[in-house]
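[Meeting: bench + compute handoff]

Bench side (C.D.) handed over the final construct sequence. Compute side (W.E.) agreed to return the predicted structure before the next meeting so the bench team could plan truncations. Sequence as handed over:
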Amino acid sequence: MPVALITGASSGIGEEFARQLAPTHDLVLVARDVAKLERLGEQLYDAHGTRVGVLAADVSTRAGREPVLARLSDRIHPIDLLVNNAGMGYSTGASRNPVDHEMYMLEVNAVAKVHFSLTAVQAMLARGKGGIINVSSICGIAPAWVDSLYGTSTATVLRHTEEMAYSKALRSSDVKIMALCPGDVATDFNRRAGIPDKTDWGWVDVQVLVRVALADLRKGKVVSIPTARYKFLSSLMKIFPNSWSKMYGYDLGAQPPEEARAGGRG
């Protein structure tokens, strides 16, 4: 049975990927909260007979990423699908947050994902097949979440994914790589980040998001933007100059001062 490795699998999008992949894949689940991963693994084994391995990892540091890098590089027990999902955000702006906090977010959201993605690409190219889903954000398409490195980090992941997907190395192989760019998803991410649970565009159901993402990967899409409303919004964001973001962007620096909180970590 093929094996999928999922980072940030203890909640939200990562957990839903695990649930939807369990009938067809064995799993390696990655997060800091091992107890949650083990409970999820027991549920998936009972429901589907899925073999589940658990890796505890803090992806914010090179040392913390080592167990995941080693597993992705394993040629004897290869990973067939990487779901590169672990991420986080803050409720307050970069102009107010400690610089170290913003750099921590950049490590988790961008450096770790690119590190895992490149490692998986090379291992999969050596085998001639494989798939990678890099979870980015619609905020990576244009400056929609301003006064924050969140958009910077997700834009890095999006651009990296596109540059690899259009390379001759991947185009001449059966290795697929795709960026998933959701909008507001009905998970615990916003609450944990201290961001108000409201949006003019409505929530995207996490089950729909994951189902569409997996279908888009099978189709060979390079960028997946689930739901018609976010496809429409992303089209407008590509058309309008980035300077217009000062009129439509969600400005974290304009929010009432409060202690910065991190959310969405797996």
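W.E. noted at the follow-up: The chain has one domain: 3-263. C.D. will use this when planning the next construct.
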